[in-house]
Specification:
Length: 374
Amino acid sequence: MTVSLGPLASLMLEPGDTVRVVDDERDWRAMRIDRDETSSAVLEPVSTVRIGENQGVPSVSDGRITVAAPFFRMIDLPPLPQEGGDARPIAVVAAEPWRPMRIFAGPDPASLTARGDVSDPAVVGQLVGGLARGARHRWDVVNTLDVRIEGRPPESLPTSAVLAGGNTVVVETAVGWEIIQFRTADLVGGETWRLSGLLRGQQGTEEAMAAGALTGALVVFLGEGLARVASPFAERGLPLIWRAALAGAPPGGAGVSEVGFTPTGESERPWSPAHLRSAADVNGGFALTWVARSRTGGDRWEGEDRLADPPRYRVTILKAGSSIRSFETASEAAIYAGPDAVRDFSDGYDEGEWAVAHWGDGYGWSPEARARLF
């Protein structure tokens, strides 16, 4: 049997899962999942033999799948301007029909504790086509997000509303979550929407933007339906079991979803520096400069800029992509001394690069920003 899947069922179902079909008491196993503009699943009945029981003849169904447990993911994100620096992880829960959920977590099933409630379902979707890397710090008018959406449909917003934080989504990539904003939402067929006029790599997520995303990647719309849940600082780096259950019900049983998730404190990850410049000096070396970016409070129009993290930077010299020298400095400038440069690049600077990272006391080193040495 081949049945069509809505976006939410497509996100939740995996080959090998056992499901029930409406108006059919038999169990069915998902043999193949096809995720494209019209996702579908190939189902085969699970063979069971009961002594003395007549299995009867196959029944005709309308192809609707009943999924009891909710869709559930936990995500860690950089600071979101509209949330005032809330550092707690986010619970993404969706189900149809919807009922309020409670989130539990712990190192093992016996030590689960309640972490928070989710009152409204999240708006989630899947990429219909892949997403390539795009432009930074300007409108990306080349790429679009084609998304099959489960939940409230998106809407277009004027530029001023987007720049104020509206129309924000996160897209899962191989190296983390990219935060993207969009101006225009167009329905292109069925449950598929095309989001265009993109601002890519927002809130310091340029590394995820550079990685791109594949067809079928999860897309989460930020805003209503997302709940922050408790996770103390001591849990950072610890792999935990997280469960979503009906509010008021125990965190176990058929209607409970479980994921493994390790809080990392992404809200305290420093952003990579910007505006890297190198200039040859009279001693045969290079004067290196950059501008630090602040993950919070960096967009003030008046007064001096205040960094959220201490002025500690690590400069790395690279040759053919490999590190050959590294040192730290407490200012947004450094000197790569002439004797060192001559020794490191006796055959010329064609393969020379340099990188700089910013330290955060609550996280560690930021992603590196790179530039050509000469």
